[in-house]
Amino acid sequence: MSELHVMEHPLIQHKLSILRDKNTSVKEFREIVSEIASLMCFEATRNLPLEEVEIDTPVARAKVKRLAGKKLAIVPILRAGLGMVDGVLQLIPNAKVGHIGLYRDPKTLEPVEYYCKLPNDIQERDVFVLDPMLATGGSAAAAISFIKQRGCRTIRLMNIIGAPEGVKKVQSEHPDVDIFVAALDEKLNDHGYIVPGLGDAGDRIFGTK
Q1: Torsions phi, psi for 41 (to 5 deg)
Q2: What is the pLDDT of residues 48-99, one digit of tens each?
Q3: Over 124-156, what HEC string results?
Q4: How far apart are CA 160 and CA 101, in angstroms?
């Protein structure tokens, strides 16, 4: 069953308090989204496998541990997910980056993929799907489905703020995908916004509010 990881590290919680503040500037909001993504990545990669190798230090021969040749990819959900990319790449700079864009069909209300560009070897990689907000869960669940259709089986979802409704949907549709959030908020309001949340993350990242 999918595990929900709520990251309560003091640094993450402090930065999250600034994100929630409606008076935070676009510049500061954008910077802190990236910083939180980097801190979350540290925790989300905790279980990556290691292998032992031998190297020469300036003093002696030593056995050390390195990542066991694991190929990684990050896939932001357009457009707000782009705000998390640089923060993650600071920790795993060799990861390849894909992009996936979705919109909701006004008649069926189902997510429709309008853009998807993934690494050619995506099926060989551990994938981190990035989106600041996990509200209804519709976009995240659909993005994960589209990625799975390309042959990928090891996927983690990283969101800064999640709502119980979104967590439930992703877990029900993708019980093999662990979810990492900095905060699990109370609920969704009648307009589908997370409460208390932080508003529209895309608008606040790109200054289009």
Answers
A1: -60, -35
A2: 889 999 999 999 999 999 888 779 999 999 989 999 999 999 999 999 999 9
A3: HCEEEEECCEECCCHHHHHHHHHHHHCCCCCEE
A4: 19
Say which residues have a Cβ less than 8 Å from residue 57's Cβ, sequence separation at least 6.
none
Q: Which residues are catalytic?
A: 104, 108, 200, 203
Q: Which percentage of the chain shows pLDDT scores above 70?
A: 99
Q: What residue spans of 6-74 are helical by DSSP H?
A: 10-20, 26-44
Beta-bridge mates of residue 2: none
Other C-beta atoms closer than 10 Å to the C-beta of 10 total 7
Segments in 21-121 forming alpha helices (H): 26-44, 85-91
3-class DSSP assignment, residue 114: strand
pLDDT tens digit string along 177-194?
A: 999 999 999 999 988 889
* Two tokens, residue 198: 């932080």
Backbone angles phi, psi at 142, to 5 degrees: -70, -45
**Which residue's structure tokens are 């090891």?**
154
Where residue 151 falls (left for φ over 0; alpha for ψ -120 to 50; beta otherwise) is: left
Give the CA-trace dihedral at 143, 149, 151, 157, to 10 degrees: 20
